[in-house]
Amino acid sequence: MNVAIIPARGGSKRILRKNLRSFCNKPIIAWSIEAALNSAQFDKVIVSTDDDEIAQFAIEKGADVPFVRPAELSDDHAITRDVVNHALTWLAENEQPAEYCCVLYATAPFVTSNDLASAFAQLKSSKRDFCFAATSFPFPIQRAFYFTPQGDIEMFDKKQMKTRSQDLQEAYHDAGQFYWGKADAFLQNLPMYSQHASAFLMPRYRVQDIDTEEDWETAELLFSAIQSRGL
């Protein structure tokens, strides 16, 4: 059985009621539920939540909410892997064990059904345990700097000060969108950023972490532009 797990707790702090807030004319979680359902990759699309309103909306959209997420996995310190493993364990004990699982964030409106299907195909062909969404940094990370307590500027890697940008190795980061994997690999807590995983590369214009009001505004502008151009 293939299962999508969408974590969506009710108590978001930086953006209140974030998972149900309207994003381009529909609650943001709706985009993730629709992408999962339309991908035809899943036997179940489960929303893991502690919130009655989120649960009701998810069910109306066609997702399953077979349990209430425990309070100890619903606070600000909850770890995604623990939330996922709780859902996988519940399925194994109460319904049917999953073979493959995709963790899809509720605030990932840029993820398409095709992304999910293509990443699953990549996971199977790679013969690895995980496949997660990633993208490239827009600027060489070797040129990054920081401010000292005195307000001075210091480079993280001074050796690269005079290296040409085109001679620096390109760097990538987790896109924070979705994570495909074997259910057993999740439950065994195998490390994601390791030889166990492959990276499904997404274009930077479809990657936006949404944690602040500025993030939200940026994401809506990008999303609207993408839809208007049919990308």
Automatic annotation (TrEMBL):
One of its GO terms (molecular function) is N-acylneuraminate cytidylyltransferase activity. It comes from the Bacteria. It is an enzyme of class 2 (transferase). InterPro entries: CMP-NeuNAc_synthase, Cytidylyl_trans, Nucleotide-diphossugar_trans, PseF. Its EC number is 2.7.7.81. Keywords: Nucleotidyltransferase, Transferase. NCBIfam families: PseF (TIGR03584). This is Pseudaminic acid cytidylyltransferase. It comes from Alteromonas portus.
